[in-house]
Design a protein that fits this description.
This protein has 315 residues and is of the alpha+beta class. It has 10 helices and 6 strands, in the order αααααβαβαββαββαα. Helix content is 34%, strand content 8%. Bound molecules: zinc ion.
Amino acid sequence: MSFRINNAISKVVLGVFLAILGIIIVWLGVKIVSVEGDHSLDEKLAIVFGWGINETNDEIETEPFSVLNEPDNTDKKSNVQSMPELTPLTNAPTANCTANYGSLMLVNPNFVVEEDFIATRRNELISLNATYGIRELNAWNGDNLIDAEAGEHLNEMLTAYKADYPGQEMQTVSCYREVGTNCGRLCMPTGASDHHTGLACDLVDATYGTSLDTSTYEAHPDWQWLRENSYKYGFIDRFPEDWAGGPMSEPMNVDENGSTGLFETWHYRYVGVDFATDIATGKYNDGKYDSLEHYLKARGLVKDLKTGKCAEKDV
Ligand SMILES: [Zn+2]
């Protein structure tokens, strides 16, 4: 008798246990399936149970992209995975790991591009002269070529300059540079020049002289105007003095902290208005003008500035 009762109770307890277990499994299944985005099972479980997720997540998703700037996070795989959906500049093949970073692509002696990349990129650019009547002082490339979006913003910027300085004109000295462009001390070796991106121009108002020399900065209101205003049009002072390690400290020498070893008051680079605002206002540099190199590292987009690596797995 007592055996039968115990047996019946055991069956009831077991039944209830299995029912609860079933409900939990179904609930978990529904939760995992409903997690949005491309995640592994481990990551989905972490999201469902809130492991390692902080409350600022919603806020981060509203940023242009959700790379965190804390030094502790720069090594984490998740930072690389949360890259913005930037459109690559080109499909031209290159081993440069920043090739998918769109307007944030980094080219310098440690992040080089191959000749095929440079040649393909040329065919994708527009002529500033033909499209906007912006003249080039030095026709090293036969014409002044630039990325279409950058060109549109450059035209707006130079129009704004003209409004502030009636009767004067900012001209391009040179924008895109192709393989083997020879311009003396102002040219980086083929493969290492920011000008290969089609996003950079050297600029000057001939009213103040056409010699590109940082020591004449005080006598160049044009360069001072660019430094103050260019970010509103998506352009940055690509080689600011604070990151140069001294005037005209050539050759370019990028260190692991983001110093470039270069100071050029005429070289401006398009990155887009949001990123340019971050960089010019020093969002990741204590309110002081940033270098593109330092900015990319601070946002976890570049891992090692000396060896040209973007992610932990590449180092
Ligand atoms: Zn330049």
